[in-house]
Amino acid sequence: MKKYYCNPINVPYRYQFNMDPRSNGKLQIDREAADPSMILFHGKYYLFASMNLSVWVSEDLVHWESHRLPVNLPLYDYAPDARVCGDYVYFCASKRGEVCNYYRTKDIIEGPYEEIPGTFDFWDPNLFFDDDGKVYFYWGCSNQTPVWGVELEPESMKPKTEWKELLFGDGYTRGYERMGVDHCEFPRSDEEVGAMFQAYVKQSKVPIEQVPKAYIPAIKGMFTRRPFIEGPWMDKYKGRYYLQYACPGTEYNCYADGVYVADHPLGPFTPAKNNPYSYHPGGFMPGAGHGSTMWDLQQNLWHTATMRISVNHQFERRVGLWPAGFDSDGELFCNQNYGDWPIAVEDGRMDPWKEPEWFLLNYAKPAKASSFVKGKEPEKAFDENAKTWWRAADSESGQWLETDLETVMDVRAIQINFADDALPIDSPGKIQGSETQPRYIEERDLVTRWKLEGSLDGAEYFMIEDKSKADTDLPHDLVIREEGMQVRYLRLTIVEIPYHVDPCISGLRVFGKGAGDKPVPPKYNAVKSEDELDLLVSIEETADAIGYNILWGHEEERLYHSYQIYRNPESVQKAVKHQVEKRIGALVKGKEYFVRVDSYNENGITHGVVKKV
């Protein structure tokens, strides 16, 4: 039996009312969930994510239910960590400048949670219980300091050893650790950083003596352009220890997870050949950093991580889930090819490299709506970019958005992605949280209601899915028709959304099986840059493709990384061919690579030839 989901996962992401000190008093409102810790406990899957006051629970990794967590937990602290040890689940979260405690429970939802006093402050924590009974702890979130590790006393959770520095960033050697969109920024010099820090202090009009010393490294870190090395997560496989970490920054499309390997939980660690092992810089919603890795009940490995929007607020984020595994050489990998298209979850052991069964049917297809705001036309909901959206002209119930597939097609899935556009409302509760990230998290259970209809001719419509009376709030909802349905026009009618504001849709995405030919394989050229950190790819467009997937890896048969790109919509519509130039800044200096460029359209995927660079 198969079940399907589509990233970002379909859960009720809670609204954040951010009073970010950097926004000069402006309230910034967005939905957020990030830094997921996913565990298997007593036959169910539990996913803890930042700033959601809740835990998401599933029996199949497809359908998730949200349950509020007990209020004595640090729910306003980032990067919640959850790990299983025997009959207990251990929990902790981040707070800089205050001692962080640990908690444990035998019942995740109902509690009670026993509090275990901590002895130091930390950010981005991760507990690891080794099979010999020893307990290790990892933490770190900075572009100034490393990821640390320490052994803990199993009962008291107090440090048993000295802290040990484990990982540092190096953007001059590991291209994927560079900051910026597509890793476009190298670190600044200490002199540049010092000058920018002084200018910042002068502009803020706060005497340097009044700036808390604990915050000075973080403030300077804003100017360094050094990579954030953060979000550690430890796994053990066949006697070896895999220390995973996130970089270079959560607000970038290239947010990724790398991995180091050692024979001991505290190292010494060496980078794995396959780095970054979790990488999803392209597609509709990019990002695949700061997450966790878990074996399911069928012994399939999964990786969950943070996906990026970052429009209404820097930390406007979502959660993704992908198949993962270890190859015969012990290399950890994660399959993020077409990583935000529908993914099948099957009973038993799965092939983690299985290609999509269904393909995007409505890219660059005609669109219309009941109304729109200038600059946010209906076409914005079909450009495969979560940072742009259609916005209706007003908030009246009944606004609609329609896509035309141009012919009757075999439709299997529709993903409906709601967006937020500078919401004009006040915080419904008191701003709280830390000094550096004050906010209020929406506590009420809101609703998102809509109807999805289909038509063969644009005149007579039939109901596909009616959620006009739903009690759920799912901003990335998914409709599945596994057996397929024949339809040309799909119309989404908005009935009710949170706060009764103008509805916005960033993606009304239709998937299925086209009846035509797959695209021809593309001609391309690929070379390394002089500093060996960039892969420079030049593709001769073909008129029958809507996009290309660029794959690369350390061996010809192990092309574990990918970057999915779409052709310009106008070029697709007019069948105009251009030369596509793409720079991928994720190489490791001194390493040998193999490359392949595949083409895809609504009918399928065509593999290109593999080349060595």
Describe the structure.
It is a single chain. The protein is built from three helices and 44 strands. The longest helix is centred in the first third of the chain and has 15 residues. The strands form ten sheets. Strands 27, 28, 29, 30, 33, 34, 35 and 36 form an eight-stranded antiparallel sheet that branches. A hairpin with a 5-residue loop joins β12 and β13. The protein is globular and about 70 Å long. 5% of the residues lie in helices and 41% in strands. The model has no long low-confidence stretch (mean pLDDT 96). It is mostly beta strands and 613 residues long.
What is the secondary structure topology, with strand pairs?
Elements: E1 2-5, E2 14-18, E3 28-32, E4 37-41, E5 44-48, E6 54-58, E7 64-68, E8 81-85, E9 88-92, E10 102-105, E11 114-116, E12 126-129, E13 135-139, E14 141-142, E15 147-152, E16 164-167, H1 190-204, H2 216-224, E17 229-237, E18 240-247, E19 256-262, E20 270-271, E21 278-279, E22 289-295, E23 301-308, E24 317-326, E25 332-334, E26 343-346, E27 359-360, E28 367-369, E29 390-391, E30 400-418, E31 432-433, E32 438-441, E33 449-455, E34 461-466, E35 476-496, E36 504-513, E37 523-528, E38 535-540, E39 547-553, E40 561-566, H3 569-574, E41 579-584, E42 594-601, E43 604-606, E44 610-612
Antiparallel strand pairs: 1-26, 2-3, 2-32, 4-5, 5-6, 6-7, 8-9, 9-10, 10-11, 12-13, 13-15, 14-17, 15-16, 17-18, 18-19, 19-20, 19-21, 22-23, 23-24, 24-25, 27-36, 28-30, 29-36, 30-35, 30-36, 31-32, 33-34, 33-35, 37-38, 38-41, 39-40, 39-42, 42-43, 42-44
